[in-house]
Amino acid sequence: MLDELLAAWIGHQRWFGGKGRPIDTLSIDSDVTIEAGDPGLRHLIVSVWQDGSRERYQLLLGMRADLPDTLQHALIGQCGPYAFENGPSHPWWHVYDAAHDPELTHWILESMAGDTEQGVVRFEHLPGVGIDSGVRSMVLGAEQSNTSLVYGDAYICKLFRRLIPGVNPELEIVTALAARQAPHIAQPYGWMEIDLDGTATTLAILQEFLSNSTDGWDLALTSVRDLYNSLPDVTAAEAGGDFAAEAARLGGATARIHRELATAFPTGTVEPHEVKRMAEGLRRKLGRAAAEVPELREHVGMLEAAYHRVEELTAEVAVQRVHGDYHLGQVMRTTTDWVVLDFEGEPGQPLAERRAMSSPLRDVAGMLRSFDYAARHLLAGHAEADKLEPKADQWAERNRAAFLEGYVEGGGTITAADAALLRAFELSKAVYEVIYESRNRPSWISIPLAAFR
Ligand SMILES: Nc1ncnc2c1ncn2[C@@H]1O[C@H](COP(=O)(O)OP(=O)(O)O)[C@@H](O)[C@H]1O
Ligand SMILES: O=P(O)(O)O[C@H]1O[C@H](CO)[C@@H](O[C@H]2O[C@H](CO)[C@@H](O)[C@H](O)[C@H]2O)[C@H](O)[C@H]1O
After folding, report:
1. Global pTM value
2. Which of 176, 234, 307, 361 is the right S-S partner for 230, CB 3.0 to 4.6 Å?
């Protein structure tokens, strides 16, 4: 049975949110044939039930009577008999993850180019944009919470795997910023959507692929490695691969993005008496996190104290749409400048929270944490970790300061009164990261935990 095959496979996928917990049942909510052939392409929405709660996922299934060696790694299993309506029928089919089959993924481009409706799935493109469906795709290696298909060096199509009813904030934000011709974004071209619970829900976004570019995480690590490999008395400023000028430029780009978001979407202020509620929100998250991850418990007192300082603030806090999950892996250095990706907010948070106005300092805090991550992640398991730790601290300090300077020079606002808020946001981000790492990369958990020291 297809549902049983999928239930056995889905739990092992990188993008599956419920890893480590048994799946009670998997049911197929919709099953649309996009291409009736051999190979054939089906689009499925499935509901996965775990501990009484339900999550929905999007799957693209390829169907072939014979599976070539090049697609064996994508095999889900064999099922049959199955007959496509007006298409081939075989007693046995190989069912596999069609994201890996360029003979099938071109249907996504073709359907977007034609603004086609396939059953309940709608494909759209932005007015005035031409889509060339002749380019072959491959799955991007860095598959994380979603699956990205790169078509030649022209497009990247991000398939959202876990679905939350509503327009994805990434699509909402990049289309609004592109309409303003804002810099520092990847141009959007098209999208896929479906109605879930009566709400139009984004399934995928097609964007410009930034070829000849590197993400900020890789660039930062090159710089950190360079410093680690330098002579003991060489400082972060003196090392050949110094990153500070790039960190400052990134700060400037961040300020510009915040300005564009404040112009394209509503803005507001949180009055001092309401700031208490912000602190309560941080506390609630801490409570949930400490219940899940025991290593956090010894830091709760210090964290509570930092959140309490936010409650004592007497100035109002400016709020607007923000990125929401800002880190070095979300920014790409092209040949000309930094481009910001993935305005989706923190995966796992409710959509309303991800779309809510917040202080732009949350993004600043996210990137500051990322400099800490880059400085420390090579230390885990390193034979000379103790000797290198001062260098890691120095690298983080230098690049955090450069980023903040660039942000302020670029027009971003950080006042002395913001210090308590920025610190609370940074600590709260580290709490989120402790959970993220304990669920996804347990060997990395020491990185965010180090922030509390
Ligand atoms: N428009 C793009 N051009 C080039 N590479 C991209 C683009 N969008 C994403 N990437 C690459 O994909 C990686 C993951 O993208 P991201 O949008 O952050 O997905 P996820 O939400 O799954 O982490 C990025 O770090 C980057 O390397
Ligand atoms: O990129 P995503 O939207 O999937 O974000 C999630 O995964 C990120 C890891 O890939 C995680 O980021 C954390 O690790 C990064 C290094 O890999 C580091 O640069 C970030 O500062 C750190 O938060 C992110 O938190 C999570 O939401």
Report:
1. 0.89
2. 234
